[in-house]
Amino acid sequence: MEKVVIIGTGCAGLTAAIYAARANLNPLVLTGIMPGGLLTTTSIVENFPGFPEGIDGYELMVRLQKQAERFGARVKFGTVEAVDLSKPPFTLTVDGEPVQAQTIIIATGAGHRHLGLETEHLLDKKGVTYCATCDGALPMFRNQPLVVVGGGDSACEEATYLTRFASTVYLIHRRDTLRASKIMADRTLAHPKIKPVWDSVVTEILDVKQDKVIGVRVKNLKTNAETAIDCAGVFVAIGHVPNTQLFKGHLPMNNEGYILPGKGSTTNVPGVFVAGDCSDHVYRQAVTAAGMGCAAAIDAERYLAAMNE
Ligand SMILES: Cc1cc2nc3c(=O)[nH]c(=O)nc-3n(C[C@H](O)[C@H](O)[C@H](O)COP(=O)(O)OP(=O)(O)OC[C@H]3O[C@@H](n4cnc5c(N)ncnc54)[C@H](O)[C@@H]3O)c2cc1C
Fold this sequence. Notes:
There is one protein chain. By secondary structure, the protein is of the alpha/beta class. Helices cover 25% and strands 27% of the residues. It is built from seven helices and 19 strands. The chain has helices at 11-22, 57-70, 118-122, 132-135, 153-162, 182-190, 286-307; strands at residues 2-7, 28-30, 44-45, 55-56, 74-76, 80-84, 90-94, 97-106, 110-112, 128-129, 145-149, 168-172, 194-197, 200-206, 215-220, 226-230, 233-236, 240-242, 272-274. The strands form five sheets. Strands 1, 2, 5, 6, 7, 8 and 19 form a seven-stranded mixed β-sheet that branches. A five-stranded parallel β-sheet has the order 10-17-11-12-13. Strands 14-15-16 form a three-stranded antiparallel β-sheet. Strand 6 (80-84) and strand 7 (90-94) form a beta hairpin. The chain is elongated, with a radius of gyration of 21 Å. The model has no long low-confidence stretch (mean pLDDT 95). The chain binds flavin-adenine dinucleotide. Flavin-adenine dinucleotide (FAD) is lined by residues 7-13, 30-35, 37-39, 41-42, 45, 47, 79-80, 107-109, 130-131, 134, 243, 246, 276-277, 284-287, 289. Flavin-adenine dinucleotide binds next to helix 1 and helix 7.
């Protein structure tokens, strides 16, 4: 019987692991298919506190894991395939094997929606990115024209944020009005640096031969006309998909599938806690995920202490 099982080894899961391990709970931490989580896919992280020169995303996650292991966390390669949260102890099916747990911390993260273009994949991290807050300030994007793809609140936020660095921000949207809330849409369209490109989709990101983004090819869906736009970066902001399918029907979620926490990190199932991007559709940052992981471990520890009183 495990006292605490932590599902996920991103910033949320590994921070929860550090706290749970230091509380002598000997947590079992399951990596899923992406040990270290999303941050391992990026090169330089410049906004995680404590690293004035920035730190490589992979290295940061290796350090977090070592820190958790130093206090007794057991990090194991394994994917949770099914859960039974109907009554404690909870049962998880991990790569076909049952694991019983008194408490669970869900830290399964969220993935980005992709455009689905081959050139997007080939130029990922070579000018194609999914997070303006993370990458907008990089030198390669400064004083350059940039493209944001999308028309919702996130796309508007990304475009507005990027005006601090870019010479021009082209906002490419498949419709002729933004889906974002009116106030956000009005603010975005009023910005002198933001130029909307309506009724259009990106068909190709240029230029794979040069191994960096130099522009996009865009098709107008009404006229079928194709044009090219020069840019140094493409920020894809067409939404996220939280990794929460496992918990559908067990835990309350919003329309997009983000788990809705109760007080702190609690859920509607006592003993099940949630942390990080799988329950955060607003901030989605390494440091906020880490903070939520800390909160979930403290909540789990207090829950176990109360059970044993
Ligand atoms: C390219 C890129 C660059 C970024 N740069 C920055 C940056 O500079 N600064 C910043 O603050 N943020 C940045 N972010 C955002 C940051 O990576 C996320 O906010 C953060 O990783 C969220 O942490 P998390 O622990 O919630 O989830 P994740 O990091 O997504 O981790 C989720 C974990 O859950 C595991 N998992 C999922 N399903 C299962 C399952 N069924 N069973 C077991 N395990 C499972 C996964 O394998 C993974 O280990 C960036 C993101 C990307 C993609």
